[in-house]
Amino acid sequence: MPIKVSVVIPVYNPGPYIEDCIASLLRQSLPGDEYEAIFVDDGSTDETPERLDRLAAEHPHMHVVHQEPSGWSGKPRNVGIEAAKGEFIQFVDNDDWLGDEALERMYNYGVEHNADVIVGKMVGKGRPVPRELFRKNRPYANVENAPLIDSLTPHKMFRKAFLDKHNLRYMEGRRRLEDHVFVTEAYLRAENVAVLSDYLCYYHVKRDDASNAGFQRFDPVGYFKNLREALDVVEELTEPGPLRDRLFRRWLRNEMVERMRGQRLLKLPADYRRELFDEIHKVVVERFGPGVAAGLQTTQRIVADLIVADRLADLEEFARWESGIKASGVLESLGWEGGKLTIGLTAEYKSGGEPITFRADGDKDLLVPPLPRASLDAIAQLGADTSAPLAKSKVDVVVRERVSAAEFFQPVEFTREKAAVKGRQGYFRHILRATARLDPLTAANGVALDAGIWDVFVRITACGWTKDTRLGSVRSEEAGRGRRAAVVGSPARLVLPYWTDPHGNLSLDVDQRTDRISYEFAGLTPADVTVATGPDRLTVALPLHIQGESEATLKLTNVATGRSADLSATVSARLTGGAELRAGLPLGELGDGQWRLELIMPSSGAGEPVALPLALDVPASGGAAVRHLAAAAADLAAKDPGRRRPASRRAGLTFLRRAAGKLRRALKK
Which of 41, 347, 410, 439 could in theory staple to 329 by disulfide, Cβ–Cβ 3.0 to 4.6 A? Predict the structure, then answer.
């Protein structure tokens, strides 16, 4: 069987961090005879060489190459390319890992779209990764129609014939940004680049000991010497003009301007800060024309202008102001409509807890940083454009899975509003009003959300800032009233919006990954519970949103004997709102006594039965009645006050203790 994919992993002293990488390779859905993994051990001095030798001995598609230390990742990757037998090569770092279906999905996607390079959706575990690039699938991407240049790490799949045709190899030796040089050239030479965004392919991980190479402080002179080599590739393969300026802008923005902003700058030691600034100044002056910085957002452009003018002190003042700017959001409304969770919100930037204000100057809106006069004069003398392009501002709603950190943009409609500032003529706040509609069955770039806990974020982009904040801690009463669980899809999925503790942010529990649904029902009072019984049926109103109907199971447990029975039930939508549980009652089979009710929710998850605060009384004389469990226990206690904890009372107390315990556990999550 021909090898479809060769996975190349450069290895140097990863210790236990390599285990997740190995495990993910062994879990791949691609058959073992259709892919291979090539670990290139670059002179490791820990236990890794022996670990890899054992792995290769146990699994014929796992290979290891041992070599003398070369100092960086370039040579090991090149050795892996030469040894690879696959049609495509996927590069993986030894402390990262792949999604279980990553190789199969990326290979099929690349073949389908005849791609030379396949970029699979990445997630950062403590590390930044591109976001806009993965907003949607891009089967036919290039540097002109997609933000490919935002993703220059090597963790992609490349057609081996393409690499050989252009003799694409990594620069070797102890150096930085060899991946920028390699990937940039690949993008510019590729016939097609395919971006796969509907499956989480690559987990980019920050180690607990923060020893990843990318987190180590670097020598500015050497770093920016290597950066110039990536710029050389762009100059060789593009013509002067807007495209080249746009590509150069990536390095100006990410590698220079962003290093000179906010706490990222201020936390650096003064001597290192000056050394870094001086090298950045040299590159900007030497290599970038005015068209490069002209495409930056307002705050980024101010920083770039201060770099060109060699004004580090003013840059530090600007960084002190920027470091306090945060996104804020108010959850105005929440509710289910047609199986979709509708989220209404307002959002704006704040600094020091107060909204950031802008100034109207004719038909222009201006950003007015509260800086010392000397710094403002310096910015004005530079001719820096402080106009605020608020018409281009936007707001996004993003859901992020708590364990994997996978995140997905949700459909949003929004408007921009100028709110006058009392007592300050000409000044205003910039407020974004948005409505997002989250469909659990399509929210993950067109596919359903996986089971898990999904935290909800609002993301504001304006004036060169892109900042996130959790949503829900500040909310209206209307939003509180609209929060309820929902049953969606077929097979049914149970989705519960809830408030986190202690901050009260909005999260979604998909398929009962917490026991919070039990708390939802435990909180019902007798007034909340509508029950109707007939000779052979039971109907209970539930605080759920559902479309149509879904099958469920009602579990009855006799309080005195512990005997249980499972009844088939149906959960369906009510015309008056909420849901209705209906189940047949085989009263003759149950016999007299009191029965506790538990609902096994209609969900594809593996959630436990949910206790309902109800007791079914079946008297020997016939008929049946349903009451709130606590009320039933209290009635029995009142009738026989001398009785020592009758079974029904014990049942009520047990239920309440269980509910309290579940609440405590839920609040810890």
Answer: 347
Q: Per residue in 616-638, pLDDT tens? A: 888 887 777 777 776 655 555 56
Q: Is 567 exposed, middle or buried (0-12, 13-18, 19+ CB in 10 A)?
A: middle
Residue 648 has pLDDT above 50, yes or no: no
Whole-number Å distance between alpha carbons of 65 and 42: 9
**Which residues are marked as active site?**
179
How many DSSP H helices and E strands does the chain contain?
A: 19, 32
Which pLDDT band holds residue 639 (cuts at 50, 70, 90)? low
Rounded CA separation 587/534 (Å): 10
The residue ranges of DSSP E strands in 483-592, in sequence order, are: 485-488, 493-499, 506-510, 531-533, 537-542, 544-546, 549-558, 564-573, 579-584
User: CA–CA separation, 235 vs 328, rounded Å?
Assistant: 41
How many other C-beta atoms are found inside a 10 Å radius of the C-beta of residue 112? 10
Burial class (CB in 10 A: 0-12, 13-18, 19+), 285: exposed
Query: 643 pLDDT exceeds 50?
Result: no
Length of the chain, in residues: 669
Q: Is 310 left (phi over 0), alpha (psi -120 to 50) or beta?
A: left
List the structure tokens of 288. Answer: 């970038």
Torsion of CA 17, 23, 28, 32, to 10 degrees: 120
Q: DSSP assignment, residue 444?
A: B
Task: Measure the CA dihedral 635/636/639/642, to 10°.
Answer: -130
Quote the CA–CA distance of 638 and 656 in Å, as a whole number.
Answer: 18
Nearest-angstrom CA–CA distance, 646 and 640: 9
- Name residue, tokens 């779209």: 113
Q: Confidence band (pLDDT; 50, 70, 90) for 528?
A: low
